[in-house]
Structures
1.
Amino acid sequence: MTLIAQLSDPHITTGSLGVEAAHRAKDAILRIQAMSPRPDLIVLTGDVVDKGDTDEYVLARTVLELADLPLHALPGNHDHAPTLLQHLVDADHAQPAAQETSRCYYRIDYPELTLLCCDSSIPGRHDGKLGREQLRWLDTQLTNAQSSSVVVAMHHHPVPSGITAMDDIMLTDAEDLAEVLRRHNPVRRILVGHLHRVMTMTFAGTVVNSAPSTYRQVHLNLRPEEPGAFVEEPPGLLLHQLSAGQTVTHYVPVHHTGPPIGRI
Ligand SMILES: [Fe+2]
């Protein structure tokens, strides 16, 4: 069995909001550290920081060092991939793409898992795109995957969520991604962030899990005419449990909303 803890959208920043975002990211990591059994790895599905600044990545690295587990990060629309790489590569939290060294997509092999971390960020934009080069890379990795358990992680969602403000900035080459995925055995999961909410979607013969933010959540509003908003709901994370032929995803709130109560 492989246990993957998925953190997303910590939006670590500096200045007046800095302590809150970093504090909540730290709490999420401590929640993982307190799990028994401990997860095998952590995947951080983007928006590691809020503005893509060097100072933010310095602070992010300090916070991520609390994780006593392998942690694999990828960029979101609030990140700056080259700066993320500059600060997280030597901590083993990220890798530059072999073919496009300013982008951050890479493969990690575990005994029973092949993890493909993708980079859907586009400098200066909030929507996302993988691009031809990365899709070719993904196709090759899926052809050569050593494990039958393949998990793909990226920031932007490839399926409309129903929340218009977020769907306006979703993955724009989702059809090309679907075409690549359909050529291979189904991957176990596609793990995404960006939506700041827990959602489950079907896409190209597999399941997409969107993780909550460790910082702040997006308001569930399915009225297309209304603007998007954040809402004060508890920060959380996902725990994906992969065993032979079965994948289970647990939602884990980081904070309790009331006092602990007794046994069931
Ligand atoms: Fe975000």
2.
Amino acid sequence: MDNRFDGLKIYRSIWISDIHLGTPGASTDQLLHFLKCTRSENLFLVGDIIDGWQLKKRWYWPQAHNDIVQKLLRKARHGTNVVFIPGNHDEAARQFVNVTFGEIKICLDYIHETADGKRLWIVHGDLFDHVIQHARWLAYIGDKAYQILLRVNRWLNIWRDAFKLPYWSFSQYLKLKVKLAVSFISAFEHAMVTETRRRGCSGIICGHIHKPELKITDGIIYGNDGDWVESRSALVEHYDGKLELLNWDKISKNIASVADVSSVKDGIDGGPTAALGELLSKSNSP
Ligand SMILES: [Mn+2]
């Protein structure tokens, strides 16, 4: 018996976001591998899937980006409940809310009930950008200041050589920079968790800030599925309702290559048992 399908992972739900298709930064190879190696009853696309902002500036659409879209449509066609919740970079899709596009449902936000009865509010996360603008502004100032200080430091080095001045270190500045980034992230998390509690949900699943996270804050689950630009991460729900944050770079090292799993059929019509049956019968065949 061959073990071609050892890497296949089956979940009740999968959340991914911030793929930014249409930009060179999108990790399409890794994402295609992820989509081929995973099956789920529910697949939530939590915004910024296609980067309409960048596409408007410059058209960038290689075949691999098409492959991702085709893969998602195929999953929807083969029985996966695929829900697309637009983000700020694909906000044009927000005008098609409650429309089904090739079996993919488009929703502004979504309430998902886990197998163990937790009510999760799913939303991209840009709706409080105005509230956390202050923290974002500080982080931006931090960036500018850093660039200026880098330039200043070059001159300082020259003067240091000329006048035998002691070395000037960035450590104080870097500490401030980290503090600003942390305050932006915690402002975002705080806003999301507060709104989740107000809506009477047990947790939130969002994206937007490209910072994967799964934790409980003040009794509310805060899940951020990260992104497919740098983190290459996803959130998943197991069949007992347990949530898990996946780092695909770590996982993919241990499982089959794309070629090995590409022949497996999409969808899990009839649930995981049927899917497993299908896989077993396939792996028994020559
Ligand atoms: Mn976003």
3.
Amino acid sequence: MKRGAGIFAIRVLRMAVGFFAGLSAGAEENAKPVVIAVDVGHTLEKPGATSARGRTEFEFNVDMARKVKTVLEQRGFRAFLINESGASIGLADRPALAAKEGANLLVSIHHDAVNDKYYRDWEFEGRPQRYSDAFRGYSVFFSEKNPRAMESRMLAELIGQAMREQGFTPTHHHAEPIAGENRPLVDPDRGVYHFADLVVLKRAEIPAVLVECGVIVHREEETALRDPKVQDRIAIAIAEGITRLVRAEESQAAGAEPAPSDLASPAAGAK
Ligand SMILES: [Zn+2]
């Protein structure tokens, strides 16, 4: 049994007093809804990674971001997408758009690739493609340069935990000591990394995390990530992590001591 994140969360909550006071994830009358910015990673012009079968990361990100928004709205949050159209905006424009819309939290949706040295060539439907079956799994990033770094880390832990509960496994390949990786893996069990200079995270003035939902250059994982049922489980996990952070903040604001089970125990997700 792993209680690290729960204990960590309580420590953070004692410091993050009442950030969400007066806000609510529920549908209570007169309560101001918590607003979540769901950022669609990359643009049409620079679409990020290319999957093992030639689909762009941007397309995966749009599909997943829409699902996350839907689940959040079902839970009583107000949610909006950043750059659903794929316009060529800058990285710093994303947190700026979140601020303009009054967002309380930001989650940036991405799909993962691997270091160049792991790629192999193959053909899919008559076209040459590149793939790597070396790594699969999800990752969650936060930045210590975000002014709300403690809550950002807690949100990353809670989303990582919820991904585990939905049956997903984290990948550790971003911690490999090679150029382009070498990211501090602060919670291997939950797939949480620290990545100081991710612009979308460090420039946000609200708690912010980036989720790599899975590795689309891995042939089997790509197939899974195209399955709407798998996508639903990822969207639920991301929304669940957000919900737990907001609930924990609410009970903190109300003066109650949050129980570790409200934050990060595996049982808390089974509703
Ligand atoms: Zn990406």
4.
Amino acid sequence: MSLESKIKALAKEYAGEIIANRRYLHTNPELSFQEFNTQKFVAEKLKELGIQPEPIANTGLVATIEGRNAQNRVVGLRADMDALPIHEKNNVPYKSHNEGVMHACGHDVHTASLLGTAKILTQLKGEFDGTIKLVFQPAEEKAPGGASIMISCTCKYAWAARSTECTRWQNRFS
Ligand SMILES: [Zn+2]
């Protein structure tokens, strides 16, 4: 079976779990830079897969999946995690429990999809070359938002000169 077929088969197998994760996130939306419960949920799911996430930009996370020849190339996959200050009028079982806050921009789907992708790629890591960086970004709905902070901290990691602020987030999480 080709790698593509294996990915499709696993996506089908895990669809129910991915939808359940999306509905949990939809029920529990959080505003920009307040994604503490979302961050915890994502971190727990990644740890279940044997992936150790690193906190970044206070309420964000990055995690790594290494395939064969991990140093050959790096591919980043990003999901945003914050919701909007909107009252949800939908009458669905997974309606927002956080009054006045709603996943109206689809970041619940983005986050659940990236978690599903992590589950699939972890299982297939012996079958692709390179490294996958999973980027769970906070505060996409704000400007300036989480992206610029993540980039700034990531560059500091790369230069082995983390700012006190970046280190503080690390300490809070561990
Ligand atoms: Zn959005």
